[in-house]
Amino acid sequence: IVPVLIKSKNNLKDTELLEDVRHELLNLTDTPYKKQHLYLTKKYVVSGIQAIRYEDIIWAYIVEVSKYGIKAGSNLIVYTKDKKENVIASVTAGNNILDNILEDIHNRNANIKIGYNAENKEFFENY
């Protein structure tokens, strides 16, 4: 799996970046989150057709999704330095794998603000 669309602020040419992501995926040693179509390489979060460098993520949190007033699941959202919102994983209600994914991402970049709260929202707005 190689992303067609790369969402990463980078000075490399797109082909070089694509090759870097391809190399990372071929040498993947961590357990991928296949059910969520998510791979955490050494440098990137690869989700579907997007790849985001850990160093570009500034804020991440999990949000519940409701349908007709009933909890239907949750989404893992990350914001990057360019203030773009990215939904990188989704699960149905009763599944807590997003907590594990969020922890894994935070372990790769301890500077990421974790959780939706007033302090992190203010940090993001003033970034």
Which regions are unreliable across 5 or more consecutive residues at pLDDT < 50? 1-12
What integer value in Å does the Rg equal?
Answer: 15 Å
Overall 3D geometry?
Answer: globular
If strands are numbered along the chain, what order do they take across the biggest sheet?
Answer: 6-5-4-7
Give me the strand/helix succession: HEEEEEEHEH
What is the strand tally? 7
Mean pLDDT: 85
Structural class: alpha+beta
**What is the percent of helical residues?**
25-40%
Main pleated sheet: 4 strands, mixed
Query: Ends: how far apart?
Result: 33 Å
Q: Treating each run of at least 4 consecutive H or I residues as one helix, how many helices?
A: 3
Measured by DSSP, the beta-strand proportion falls in 25-35%
Features:
3-stranded antiparallel β-sheet, 4-stranded mixed β-sheet, 7 strands, alpha+beta, 3 helices, 26% helix, 127 residues
Describe the structure.
- This protein has 127 residues and is an alpha+beta fold.
- Helix content is 26%, strand content 34%.
- It is built from three helices and seven strands; from the N terminus they run αββββββαβα.
- The strands form two sheets. Strands 6-5-4-7 form a four-stranded mixed sheet, with helices on one face. A three-stranded antiparallel sheet has the order 1-2-3, with helices on one face.
- A hairpin with a 2-residue loop joins β2 (44-47) and β3 (50-53).
Write the layout of secondary structure elements.
Layout: H1 14-26, E1 38-40, E2 44-47, E3 50-53, E4 57-67, E5 70-80, E6 85-92, H2 97-108, E7 113-114, H3 118-125
